[in-house]
Amino acid sequence: MAVSDADSEDPPVVVKVGGAKAVDPAGAIGDVADLVAAGRSVVVVHGGSTAVDDTLDRLGIEPEYVESASGVTGRFTDAETMEVFEMVMAGKLNTELVADLRSAGVDAVGLSGVDGGLLSGPRKSAVRVVEGGKKKIRRGDHSGKPESVNDDLLRGLTADGYVPVVSPPMAGRERDGGVTPVNTDADRAAAAIAGALDAELVLLTDVSGVYADPEDSETLIESVSTPAEFEALEDAAQGFMGKKVMAAEEALSGGSPLVVVADANADDPIVDALSGGG
Amino acid sequence: MAVSDADSEDPPVVVKVGGAKAVDPAGAIGDVADLVAAGRSVVVVHGGSTAVDDTLDRLGIEPEYVESASGVTGRFTDAETMEVFEMVMAGKLNTELVADLRSAGVDAVGLSGVDGGLLSGPRKSAVRVVEGGKKKIRRGDHSGKPESVNDDLLRGLTADGYVPVVSPPMAGRERDGGVTPVNTDADRAAAAIAGALDAELVLLTDVSGVYADPEDSETLIESVSTPAEFEALEDAAQGFMGKKVMAAEEALSGGSPLVVVADANADDPIVDALSGGG
Amino acid sequence: MTQAECVECGAEVSLHDDLEVGEIIDCGTCGAELEVIDVSPPVLDRAPELEEDWGE
Amino acid sequence: MTQAECVECGAEVSLHDDLEVGEIIDCGTCGAELEVIDVSPPVLDRAPELEEDWGE
Ligand SMILES: [Zn+2]
Ligand SMILES: [Zn+2]
């Protein structure tokens, strides 16, 4: 699917690569190298929740999922889980993606959302959950959503020829003004960055897009350009694809001219996506 | 001890904070905030081997130490250990130190030596060891020493008002040109950065300096200014302090005007060190 | 069954026996949502308004 | 005890029985340091020169 908003001449590109399994997609790395060689400013964003789960498992820590009043399931990130999250996202995955990009000739610089206050917002430490039919407040969560983006830091690095590689966590603001690293959704982080940079956003996933009928690969929604079409797209989105659509909406309303959700497993996923083939 | 080399007007300051236990020294964080407020460019470097050992232990991985032909003991870093090293150094410790500095009002940006090729050199994958009296070649090591520093990246960030917070690993160059994250000594990394920036280097440790007689706290060597005094200093240095002295030597020969090894547990350890009280 | 006072309207609120810290109780009189801060003795406070998110 | 040929001077090098991969053998004839690449059958190659470091 391609959601087009405005014309523009070579804006920056924000590429969100998938979680652990898709964090080293050879096609995406080659594409980033080609885009940079062609003079585009590129920012890479990655997640990696399944790799976090693997490490939690190795450490004997049970990941905890909680259910909200409206039935949405989310991860509860206590202090111990947050530590593992930092280690896997900002340590292992980010460092290894930067090394892979550098091996491909891309002058990559890894950053977490904490660095330079790149992704900042209030820490959400209390959440309302439903447990055994009871409404409860759970305290000690480490999560948040980015309310501000330090786009100057990214512009400075891209102007100097670097490719920032950004991962959660983000900088969670405490009530006393302190900063705590907190969990945040990587798609939403990519959307916030694309909005702040007025950049095109490519969300790479393991599937090829949003299907009007998820069971029928012929019903891929390739692009939308009216509110009614966008509503139909929202209706069609299911499961984790729903988050992609919400991220797309946030990026567009933030200033992004184009959002593409594309298949990470294609040969040239980013270049194809930007040329409208997504 | 203070090793003085040249006069200079407010050069940048590189502060090496200790390993895990000293990675959050409140005094050092306050000092960094004061130096930045006074207009100095500051780069923070940290290590954290004992935290790596703690996490290896939690994961049931035995750290392996090997002995060189001349009897020096060093860590052997296989692929599994390297992964933990990335997680703890670049993930947990770096992210948490950046958050603590930001809580103190310092606009910190975390980087590993892989980012932007900040600390680069050939990967050492084979080491000569002595095992059970036999000389052997052990392959699969992930280590290296920085032969080049991307000082432009650091200058760009400090010029924009940021405080880079740098940790191992470094960018290990493979024979095929690829980049692999590898282990490197944090004191040596700090020395290489100080040399490249012509910066003053403050090495904070848990002890107060080098003692002519380690058993006698009255014999602290406060400063040296002649080669003969430096030789006496080298003779006096023992254990891990020996590495501080070698780091000091590398920084000075690289262009650093002043190296101070100072007690991390003092109230204002960096400010005291720079004013000659080290 | 014990009772506690609603911090909003002052009415008595009935509490069931297996009360848990963090649980949210609705005041039957004014409708306020009250968080159980402690259980023995029971302490209630106004439950914070928390925005629901679309998850991590 | 088996033998192998020195890759430097061609002389026969005597090998002890509990030979291990990675072990370094000195050639008795030319003095070259030879690395054991494989043990059955034994394969030797010139051992790489490696700089000693002051450790991590
Ligand atoms: Zn009431
Ligand atoms: Zn020979």
From TrEMBL, chains C, D:
Coiled coil: none annotated. This is Lysine biosynthesis protein LysW. InterPro entries: LysW (IPR005906). It comes from Halopenitus salinus. It comes from the Archaea. It holds the Pfam family Zn_ribbon_LysW. PANTHER family: LYSINE BIOSYNTHESIS PROTEIN-RELATED (PTHR40393:SF1), LYSINE BIOSYNTHESIS PROTEIN-RELATED-RELATED (PTHR40393).
